[in-house]
Amino acid sequence: MKTEIVVVGGGPAGMMAAGTAAQNGAEVLLLEKNEQLGKKLLITGKGRCNLTNDCSIERMIENFPETGSFLYSALYTFPNHQLRNFFAELGVPTKVERGDRVFPESDSARDVVDALKGYLKDKGVEIRLKTAVNEILVEEGAVKGVMDRDGNSYLADKVVFTPGGASYPTTGSSGDGYEMLETVGHRIKSIKPSLVPLQAKEGWVASLEGLTLKNVEAGLYLNEEEIDSEFGELLFTDDGVSGPIVLTLSRDVVSRLGEGSLKLKIDLKPALDEQTLDNRLQRDFEKYSRKQFKNSLGDLLPSKLIPVIVDLVSIPADKKVNQITVEERRELMQLVKELEVTIIGTKGLRQAIVTKGGVMIDEIDPQTMESKLVSDLYLAGEVIDIDAYTGGFNLQAAFSTGYLAGINVVD
Ligand SMILES: Cc1cc2nc3c(=O)[nH]c(=O)nc-3n(C[C@H](O)[C@H](O)[C@H](O)COP(=O)(O)OP(=O)(O)OC[C@H]3O[C@@H](n4cnc5c(N)ncnc54)[C@H](O)[C@@H]3O)c2cc1C
């Protein structure tokens, strides 16, 4: 008789686990509480789906700063190039972009989801949508199946549990997995938002809402000591900052909040050293020598940013450019090199790209993804205490752990 497997959660981890188990001969039922599969996957990478990263496995593991070593087996068993081949064979070839980020050639997350759906159909996985599981059934230390909210039970030889984390709950991953796992004896490392927009003290950020700065460098300072820095794109929001470099830095912010004063110092012109920037300012000031200061920065800065900079610097806005002193020009140069934003907090889980925390990794066998506490129960994806920086690592981890569970549930 075929091994009967129930998979809970139709995200990348669950779909990969279900398809892999079915491909290896199991009879698989996939339960998903939403009306569709892969709701979060559809919005990944701003709808383009940064599905993995084209770096070495070692570098990938480094991108999971705290629990990366747990992923050795999963990432070596189903590495990034295999994931790319997998999607290419399903008709979704991929390409590599800046920072070794891998996207579908079509730039469409929808293609990734459709390919996975086609894969599940092809392998004969039975899918039941609008089915919210709310209990893991365990007898004498072994899983027997799961029960949904309406009291229907789904008995199985083995269960793969992939309900995701608690971030972006509107996509379905609302953290309900944690309680169910605690009920069967697992410990959950405290849940926090990670890869999340930051909130700033300075009120002026609101006037910049929607402004994206490309090719800037942001240093993260704790008590005036630089602890990290990132180069790339930054976005201003209604009460702070976001965008790729901020999301990456936010991981450190989440773990250091409360330890002292946290600041971002944004270098608006990282390609210009101080002398070159000063020369550039002198040229601009010569060109606009008869204008007022507030009308002289159009060649250097985006127009939305000019009133903020003019406000922050001590040069009067209506001062004639040809009367600006060397000291004043130096002050302006410093501001352009180090625009300070004081961090007072982060946005919550609702706006976090990933969840930090989850099922303790020492309670899961990293070679198989089987629970060490409940036999025949397998865990994969973001429900586990694994989270990485941006760059495609989080999805690779979901696919790799899902795959590892998928091959190990089949006897
Ligand atoms: C806006 C955004 C953009 C992102 N972009 C990227 C990116 O480009 N690259 C990257 O690597 N990562 C990205 N991520 C992170 C990535 O999407 C997640 O890490 C990944 O989806 C986790 O996969 P998962 O299968 O573990 O969980 P999920 O994708 O969250 O899937 C879990 C599934 O389980 C279902 N479920 C939950 N509870 C139950 C229940 N009780 N019963 C039945 N079903 C249930 C949910 O409805 C959901 O469908 C992004 C995240 C967000 C929010």
Automatic annotation (TrEMBL):
Span of domain RsdA/BaiN/AoA(So)-like insert: 192-354
Requisite cofactors: FAD
A Pfam cross-reference name: HI0933_like_1st
Keyword tags: FAD, Flavoprotein
The organism's place on the tree of life at top rank: Bacteria
Domain RsdA/BaiN/AoA(So)-like Rossmann fold-like: 4-406
Name recorded for this polypeptide: HI0933 family protein
Organism encoding this protein: Acetohalobium arabaticum (strain ATCC 49924 / DSM 5501 / Z-7288)
Lineage: Bacteria, Bacillati, Bacillota, Clostridia, Halanaerobiales
